[in-house]
Amino acid sequence: MAGLDKVVSTYDEALAGITDDMLLMVGGFGLCGIPEGLIQKVSDSGAKGLTCVSNNAGVDGFGLGKLLEKRQIKTMIGSYVGENKLFEELFLSGEMEVILTPQGTLAEKIRATGAGIPAFFTATGYGTQVADGKETREINGKMYVLEEAYPKADFALVKAWKADRHGNLVFRKTARNFNSMIATAGKITVVEVEEIVEPGELDPDHIHVPGIYVNRVIKGEFEKRIEQRTVKKA
Question: How many structural domains are present in the chain?
């Protein structure tokens, strides 16, 4: 990798520097748009004591579920955990701390991190346990809760559809989800893509995340597992 060229050829290069006790942000919604290969490499690395910010924790044996199996996640910050039995067991046993956050608040906290905004007020969670220990304020006759942005992630792991060698990203349909905001919120942002093109091949009007936020790009292969499939009998 030289100059503006962000492309790396191996997962070892993509995740060079990952160690224990780091803060990771991981894109995806359910299993849609998750960086499957990067998650697998984190699993292979054996890094422990991780704090993960992600909408959910995958499913048993896939996605972030692979890190749960190896007890690599110390604290999970997310908004939904209903598809993972092991997640429930680790939480109830006290092996893993869980910080549940309303989904819109989670998204805005990540976006604020990337934008350099330290905190914001939201009405979501006022009068509930979500607001416990947090500043509240009345604004124009309505009560709000102060939510702080997250620290910059040591690694932000993202899945995109296309990238050019300068790291400009294009996402495809709903696989964009949390990925575009997480891409802006990392000290080191690593993106796994389906296709890499040369600079100038992407329409500037169609770029979702500019390459200034991206440190490393790798071309991956994806299983794209479906979280739940319901079919009609013939």
Answer: 1
